[in-house]
Design brief:
binds magnesium ion, binds 1,4-dihydronicotinamide adenine dinucleotide, Isopropylmalate Dehydrogenase, 2 domains, 12 helices, 10-stranded mixed beta sheet, 41% helix, alpha/beta
Length: 365
């Protein structure tokens, strides 16, 4: 039978998003060639803040139909100083997450070889940090409900309404328990703020304990308030494995996780439609980094790790070994001081790291 060709919608976006997306494509193609059992075919979309400044729009009116022709979306980063960030977010990235039914955001964090974590415990025992953060990606604090009244006066009043639905909470809890169950430690920590937020967060807790009944004796679980959670992440990283939290809480906690792991430039994220009715989207968690854009020094490792997660997802269990080899190739490169970028204490550029990963893939995969 002909080998599967995965159709990838590539959205490089702005700033270093452009550099790291082309690096990811180069590495993915090297992987496909080395493996031989599958291939990738890309459509590149020029949706960016730069384009928005020129033409007044990010995406074509039929963007949904265009994206749905693909098996996955690979996304660089969007955002540029001349465009307010809420415009780039709400005209592109949030509509994609919502309309492509990507209600789960998964952020794995561990300490890759060659990174220098800032906390002493993790410098001595890097394996103490090995987490999957499962973020609710469709509602909560980023649901977009609210409004502004008397905006141009001293009486300006703005509301930002968080939305929590039974259906939305139940499906994220179920995904989180399944994720925890599939990992060796079978442990789930649920994050909340149900002492101060007594409606939505109380429902969040209630649904968590309901779903937990189905995993009694299979997955060990506990509950944390979000403020105390930041302390536990720093002081007792080894005490956690899988973590589930709301859209806002998990957004913040995953940046903390990336910093604890040594660099924002290495962290990946997957926006998943677990029903697989729409393409899922894979992106490094960093932004467009205007301060280093165009300098050729962006760390492409977060982009590569995101690409490895895309391979894992596309393979539906068949490509896990390939994704693991891909990760091994990445770590062989980060483990070598000669092939680390500046943010990891080295002096190699994006291109040199990319080429080193390609050579490692040809050797390992
Ligand atoms: P950022 O992640 O772009 O940069 C934060 C700091 O980390 C900067 O000093 C940057 O140079 C450094 N950095 C980030 N990625 C790096 C990499 N791969 N290698 C080396 N250094 C790296 O976050 P910032 O500055 O808050 O946002 C810049 C723009 O990006 C904004 O317009 C923001 O809205 C957007 N953004 C977009 C995201 C997305 O597309 N998903 C996510 C986060 C921010
Ligand atoms: Mg964020």
């Amino acid at each position: 039978s002909p080998k599967p060709t995965y159709r990838i919608a590539a959205i490089p976006g702005d700033g270093i998003g452009v550099d790291i997306t082309s690096a990811a494509i180069q590495v993915l193609d090297t992987l496909a060639t080395a493996n031989g059992a599958f291939a990738f075919k890309y459509t590149t979309f020029d949706w960016s803040s730069k384009a928005y400044l020129e033409r007044g729009w990010y995406m074509q009116p039929d963007w949904e139909a265009q994206l749905k022709k693909h098996d996955a979306i690979y996304f660089g980063a969007v955002g540029w100083p001349d465009v307010p960030d809420h415009i780039s977010l709400w005209q592109m990235i949030l509509p994609i997450r919502q309309r492509m039914n990507q209600y789960v955001n998964v952020r794995p964090t561990r300490i890759l070889k060659g990174t220098h974590p800032p906390v002493a415990q993790l410098q001595q025992k890097p394996a103490d940090l090995d987490w999957i953060i499962v973020r609710e990606n469709s509602e909560g604090e980023y649901a977009g409900q609210g409004g502004t009244t008397h905006g141009h006066t001293a009486h300006a009043t703005a509301t930002e309404v968080a939305i929590f639905t039974y259906v939305g909470i139940e499906r994220i809890m179920r995904f989180a328990f399944e994720t925890a169950k599939a990992r060796p430690r079978r442990k789930l920590t649920m994050v909340t703020k149900s002492n101060a937020q007594r409606h939505g967060m109380v429902l969040w807790d209630k649904v968590f304990y309901e779903v937990a009944k189905e995993y009694e004796g299979v997955v060990e679980y506990d509950k944390m308030l979000v403020d105390a959670m930041t302390v536990r992440m720093v002081n007792r990283p080894e005490s956690m494995d899988t973590i589930v939290a709301t859209n806002l809480h998990a957004d913040i906690l995953s940046d903390l996780a990336a910093a604890l792991a040594g660099s924002i430039g290495i962290a990946p994220s997957s926006n998943l439609d677990p029903t697989r009715s729409c393409p899922s989207m894979f992106e490094p968690i960093h932004g467009s980094a205007p301060d280093i854009a165009g300098k050729g020094i962006a760390n492409p490792v977060g982009a590569f790790w995101s690409a490895a997660e895309m391979v894992r997802w596309l393979g539906k269990g068949e490509l896990d070994a390939v994704a693991d080899q891909f990760m091994q190739a990445i770590e062989n490169v980060t483990g070598n001081p000669e092939t680390r970028t500046k943010d990891m204490g080295g002096s190699a550029g994006t291109k040199a790291v990319t080429e080193a990963v390609c050579r490692e893939i040809e050797r390992v995969c």
